[in-house]
Amino acid sequence: MSKEVFFPERKEIKNIIYCYTKPGKDFEGLINIGWTSKSFDERIKQQFPKKSPDGVLPYTKLLEESAVRSDGTFFKDHEVHKVLENAGFERVGGEWFRCKIDDVKSAIVAVRNYTHIELSRTNDFKLRPEQKLAVSKTVEYFKNIQTVENRAPRFLWNCKMRFGKTFATYKLAQEMNWSKVLILTFKPAVQSAWKEDLLTHVDFKDWDFVSKGYKDFSEIKKNKPFVCFASFQDFLGKNSSGGIKIKNQWAHKIDWDCIVLDEYHFGAWRDTAKELYNSEENNEKNSEGLKEIEIWNEEISPLKTKGYLYLSGTPFRALSEGEFIEEQIFNWTYMDEQKAKKNWTKKSFNPYESLPRMVMMTYSLPDSMSQITDTGEFNQFDLNEFFSTEGSYESAKFKYEDEVQKWLNLIRGTDLDNIYTNLKLGGNKPILPFDNSRLLNILSHTLWFLPSVASCYAMKDLLRQEANNFFNDFEIIVAAGNKAGVGVKALEPVKKKMNNPLETKTITLSCGKLTTGVTVRPWSGLFMLRNTSTPETYFQTAFRVQSPWVSELEGSSTEILKKECYVFDFAPNRALRLISDYSCRLDIYDSKPEQKVREFIQFLPVICFDGSSMQRLNAEEVLDMGLIGTTGSQLAKKFESARLVNVDNDTLIRLLNDENILEALMRIEGFSSLKEDISKIINKSETINELKKESTENELSEKKKKVLSDEQKKQKDLRRKVRDNMIRLATRIPVFMYLTDYREERLKDVITQLEPALFKKVTGIEVFEFEQLLSLGLMNDALMNDAVFAFKRFENSSLNYAGGFTKYKPDEIGLFDTKLTIEEFESLQ
Fold first, then answer.
1. Which of 280, 402, 459, 796 to pair with 561, CA 20 to 30 A apart?
2. Which residues contact 183 (CB under 8 A, 6 or more apart)?
3. Helix 619-628 crosses helix 572-585 at what angle (to 10 degrees)?
């Protein structure tokens, strides 16, 4: 891997509210309430640098409490001051209040939990350059567009997650002088973001907010501008008699200035709205008692509006089907954001600096784990099957619990030699999430995206078993099923468990909740543990962990707590195919896929572990793996795999007893000592077995322990030497495949019947000798088939890339000792 830093160190952060008083009558009943990003002792020394002559401290410490909320935001003393003042406590001057310490504690709790009567309007941030551009371009379009046949104008913001759509939408409303804005979404969990920006920013002090569970339309002043937030399901769903629900009839009578369709990719499509409506979140329990739901269609919508604003980070289908023309779209992608961050040259504050770079880390699981999900010889690893369950809720258990346990061992970096056999023979240990010391410091809070509610409960149960006591330090949160709550309510248990996220550790298990439109700042890593074939779902979920997390320090400086965030994926081909798809569809007007991928992974590095080594992939490798399942370098490694040849004792004894084949192999360069090496391996095995048997009966002396250790090391080195020689022979097979034209025949037949002379020239052994090697079991037929299939797939892609030219179009594709029809072959690509 390159020397680029992917796992930065994170400094320890302190943010505290502290209280003290002074001795003497003048300070009786008074408390000083302050804030610091240092410890109390460090801060108090600044205020009282000298001790009293009599040695008595000039202050009495009363309180030191964390100033971080469960959602990862920080607060300062002035918010506590405001709560006390609103409650009628006298502010004597500066930070001094006439109150009791219990009153201060109550005020801190109120600020921490947002339970003080009115949300404080403490935010006064400004629009970033791209947000200004989005607002100005949209204003220009809405003001200049000529409506056709009374159709309301429409505009799309194709902007990545973390763009700041809520704040920018509200600034657009101000620029357009709107006073009645309706926000509709398929994901009610996004409500908190819309509510927070409107009620905490100083720019919107005259605005009111209407939503289920907050304020009803009847409670607001009708002469004030307001925003109504609602779910698409609620406002356009029908009651049991097929009509509009009574509680929503007011909304259908208003002529809205603008209807905002948030998270448009999740329901605006005519053929996927029902699918979403039948998803976990809505299928758990339809609390509204809806009989049916209408599919979104502007032309027949019962709601009246002067214009539509569509918001999405992944509106790929809308773009590809031409729903919006170029002048109706504002684009802001992850690449745009990271470029702006990198290229900021002004001396002023860089507004993009806090937006973390995403790093993707993919891992090929060994056959011992992945093969349990195979339904055919070449099928890709099926995450949904791997994490499938029996039972439901608390009684759910993983169907393949032993293999899932091995996976847990893997991500902790334990038992790796047994999980990845290549590592025993000189492979490089991968960087793993809960093993690398720097990652451990960063991954205090992670989101695990699983296939089902049952798999979430099964994972919680497994994490709590004795074998996994490493995870005892983590709060395990199941954000799935009825018990987790619907919509925004599902977020509360997560925040509650996080408590003070600087001090706690959590793992949130979800199969759909909280994967769209919510901000959980402490999340720094996503484990993608389910199948998903669409870049929309994949990256909407992935970008949940890209929320900025920043702490203020003394002197108005800041510390970025999350400079990098991570996606861990255990189905590499799927992940890289979606990266190719996502990066190529960001701009439908550019037709250079390699350039798009190269630019994308410049800002989203992809690090891949293939079972023996870990490396950062380039654009060509991402495209190769994404489109054809392997890269040129990985294809070569398939023929260099230690698993491709068998060098266990039984196989070596059979080879040693076959003088003819042994002599044939020893004629090949580098094989001259083969017979001697195998004999030593067998002899050392006898010595090792005797010593091990003795050790089970009596403890070995130090001398014999050393002999055992030395013999094991020597045997391992010899076995590796024999294995490496056999692999050298196996690597000549792809050379032979390059030279032969018989793609439709089984490779074994090509070697033994069609081109034996060519095979002898390439490998140095006769065909009958090769057949004898196979009969001795020296080569793994199943893995050889897999390697040949990968070669043919890579070759086929190259032929197609060149324009589909080939000398012939075979009906079948030959592998090593089997054939596939062309239909079967293409279906597996």
1. 459
2. 169, 194, 227, 228, 229, 230, 260, 262
3. 110
Element (H, E) at 439: helix 437-442
Q: What is the pLDDT of residue 85?
A: 93
Eight-class DSSP state of 645: B
What are the CA-CA distances from residue 689 to residues 656, 684, 694, 695 (Å)?
Answer: 20, 8, 9, 10
Q: What are the residues whose beta carbons fall under 8 Å from the beta carbon of 566, sequence distance 6 or more?
A: 358, 359, 360, 361, 433, 439, 442, 443, 524, 525, 526, 545
466-517 per-position pLDDT tens digit = 999 999 999 999 999 988 887 778 888 999 999 999 999 999 999 989 887 7
296 contacts 215 by C-beta, under 8 angstroms: no
Helix (H, G, I), strand (E, B) or coil at 300: helix
> Residue 480's closest CA among 519, 433, 513, 515?
513
pTM of the model: 0.72
In the structure encoding, which two tokens stand for residue 491, read together?
């977020």
Q: Which amino acid is at 775?
A: S
pLDDT in tens, 407-463: 999 999 988 877 777 665 555 788 999 998 889 999 999 999 999 999 999 999 999
Are 677 and 723 in contact by the 8 Å Cβ rule? The answer is: no
Distances (CA, A) of 754 to 729, 734, 743, 759: 20, 16, 12, 10
Residues ≥6 apart with Cβ < 8 Å to 125: 167, 201
Average pLDDT over residues 170-183: 95
Q: Which residues contact 649 (CB under 8 A, 6 or more apart)?
A: 681, 682, 685
CA nearest to 527, candidates 453, 611, 451, 467: 451
Nearest to 622 by CA among 607, 641, 639, 640: 607
Integer Cα distance of 176 and 153 in angstroms? 14
Question: What confidence score (pLDDT) does residue 282 get?
Answer: 42
Contacts of 287 (CB under 8 A, 6+ apart): 486
The total number of residues shown for the chain amounts to: 829
- State how far the alpha carbon of 724 is from the alpha carbons of 115, 492, 653, 734, in Å: 68, 56, 18, 17
If 0-12 CB within 10 Å is exposed, 13-18 middle and 19+ buried, where does residue 292 land? Answer: exposed
Enter the DSSP assignment of 123: B
Q: Which of 406, 441, 628 is CA-nearest to residue 11?
A: 441
Residue 129 CA: distances (Å) to CA of 156, 333, 351: 18, 14, 9
Compute CA distances 478 → 345, 463, 521, whole Å.
44, 12, 18
DSSP state of 296: P
pLDDT at 83 over 60: yes
AA letter at 468: N
Cite the beta strand spans of 563-605 per DSSP E. 564-569
Residues 439 and 7: beta-carbon distance below 8 Å: yes
Q: Are 538 and 582 in contact (CB under 8 A)?
A: yes
* pLDDT tens for each residue of 350-382: 989 999 999 999 998 887 787 777 543 334 578
Least confident of 415-419, 590-594, 706-710: 590-594
As a whole number of angstroms, the distance between CA 99 and CA 32 comes to 10
Nearest Cα to 14, choosing from 78, 74, 63? 74
| Angle (nearest 5°) at CA 329 between 191 and 320 | 100
Token pair 């990003």 is found at: 37
Domains and CATH numbers, the chain: 16-112 (no CATH), 129-332 (3.40.50.300), 353-629 (3.40.50), 642-827 (no CATH)
Phi, psi of 828, deg, nearest 5: -95, -5
**Element counts in the chain: helices (H) and strands (E):** 34, 28
